[in-house]
Protein backbone atom coordinates (compact mmCIF):
# COMPACT_ATOMS: atom_id res chain seq x y z
CA UNK A 1 0.00 0.00 0.00
CA UNK A 2 2.83 2.43 0.85
CA UNK A 3 4.41 2.06 -2.59
CA UNK A 4 1.07 2.61 -4.30
CA UNK A 5 0.34 5.61 -2.10
CA UNK A 6 3.74 7.16 -2.84
CA UNK A 7 3.27 6.59 -6.57
CA UNK A 8 -0.23 8.12 -6.51
CA UNK A 9 0.82 11.23 -4.60
CA UNK A 10 3.83 11.59 -6.87
CA UNK A 11 1.61 11.51 -9.97
CA UNK A 12 -0.97 13.92 -8.56
CA UNK A 13 1.57 16.34 -7.16
CA UNK A 14 3.90 16.04 -10.11
CA UNK A 15 1.66 17.88 -12.56
CA UNK A 16 -0.50 14.96 -13.54
CA UNK A 17 0.29 13.86 -17.05
CA UNK A 18 3.09 16.40 -17.62
CA UNK A 19 6.84 15.93 -17.89
CA UNK A 20 9.03 17.37 -15.08
CA UNK A 21 10.10 20.35 -17.18
CA UNK A 22 6.55 21.73 -16.78
CA UNK A 23 7.61 23.17 -13.44
CA UNK A 24 10.13 25.38 -15.21
CA UNK A 25 7.30 27.10 -17.05
CA UNK A 26 5.69 28.16 -13.76
CA UNK A 27 8.52 30.48 -12.84
CA UNK A 28 6.52 33.36 -14.30
CA UNK A 29 3.64 34.04 -11.86
CA UNK A 30 1.57 35.49 -14.72
CA UNK A 31 1.26 31.94 -16.07
CA UNK A 32 -0.02 30.56 -12.76
CA UNK A 33 -3.80 31.06 -13.25
CA UNK A 34 -3.78 29.38 -16.65
CA UNK A 35 -1.67 26.50 -15.41
CA UNK A 36 -3.85 26.02 -12.35
CA UNK A 37 -7.01 25.91 -14.49
CA UNK A 38 -5.50 23.31 -16.84
CA UNK A 39 -4.19 21.28 -13.92
CA UNK A 40 -7.60 21.25 -12.22
CA UNK A 41 -9.21 20.16 -15.48
CA UNK A 42 -6.76 17.28 -15.76
CA UNK A 43 -7.36 16.28 -12.15
CA UNK A 44 -11.09 16.07 -12.90
CA UNK A 45 -10.50 13.88 -15.96
CA UNK A 46 -11.19 10.14 -16.06
CA UNK A 47 -7.46 9.46 -16.25
CA UNK A 48 -6.91 10.81 -12.73
CA UNK A 49 -10.02 9.22 -11.15
CA UNK A 50 -8.28 6.27 -9.48
CA UNK A 51 -5.50 8.46 -8.07
CA UNK A 52 -7.99 11.03 -6.79
CA UNK A 53 -10.06 8.31 -5.10
CA UNK A 54 -6.97 7.22 -3.19
CA UNK A 55 -6.09 10.83 -2.38
CA UNK A 56 -9.62 11.39 -1.01
CA UNK A 57 -9.22 8.28 1.14
CA UNK A 58 -5.91 9.60 2.49
CA UNK A 59 -7.49 12.96 3.34
CA UNK A 60 -10.36 11.26 5.17
CA UNK A 61 -8.08 8.97 7.16
CA UNK A 62 -5.50 11.54 8.23
CA UNK A 63 -5.98 14.74 10.16
CA UNK A 64 -2.95 16.35 8.52
CA UNK A 65 -1.40 15.68 5.12
CA UNK A 66 1.90 17.24 4.07
CA UNK A 67 2.44 17.97 0.38
CA UNK A 68 6.13 18.28 -0.42
CA UNK A 69 7.58 20.30 -3.30
CA UNK A 70 11.02 21.14 -4.59
CA UNK A 71 10.26 24.47 -6.26
CA UNK A 72 11.87 27.65 -4.95
CA UNK A 73 8.61 29.56 -5.43
CA UNK A 74 6.48 28.80 -2.37
CA UNK A 75 3.37 30.42 -3.88
CA UNK A 76 3.34 28.85 -7.35
CA UNK A 77 4.11 25.13 -7.28
CA UNK A 78 2.55 21.70 -7.59
CA UNK A 79 1.81 21.36 -3.87
CA UNK A 80 -0.05 24.68 -3.78
CA UNK A 81 -2.12 23.68 -6.81
CA UNK A 82 -2.98 20.29 -5.33
CA UNK A 83 -3.81 21.87 -1.95
CA UNK A 84 -6.10 24.41 -3.61
CA UNK A 85 -7.82 21.62 -5.52
CA UNK A 86 -8.25 19.56 -2.34
CA UNK A 87 -9.70 22.52 -0.43
CA UNK A 88 -12.12 23.43 -3.19
CA UNK A 89 -15.48 21.78 -3.64
CA UNK A 90 -14.12 20.14 -6.79
CA UNK A 91 -12.55 17.20 -4.93
Q: Main sheet? A: none
Q: Determine the mean pLDDT.
A: 80
**Quaternary:** single chain
- Compressed to H and E, one letter per element, the order equals HHHH
Distance between the termini: 22 Å
Helix/strand structural class: mainly alpha
Query: Please, how many helices?
Result: 4
Query: What gross morphology would you assign?
Result: globular
- Name the poorly predicted regions: none
Gyration radius (Cα, Å) is 13 Å
Strand segment tally? 0
Strand content: under 5%
| Helical coverage, percent range | 40-55%
Give an overview in words.
- This protein is mostly helical.
- It has helices at 2-13, 32-43, 49-61, 78-87.
- Helix 1 crosses helix 3 (49-61).
Structural key phrases:
single chain; 91 residues; mainly alpha
Précis, in short:
The protein is mostly helical and 91 residues long. The protein contains four helices and no strands.
Secondary structure layout:
Elements: H1 2-13, H2 32-43, H3 49-61, H4 78-87
Amino acid sequence: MKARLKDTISRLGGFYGHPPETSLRLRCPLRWPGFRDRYFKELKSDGAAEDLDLFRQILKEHKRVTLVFAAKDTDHNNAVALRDFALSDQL
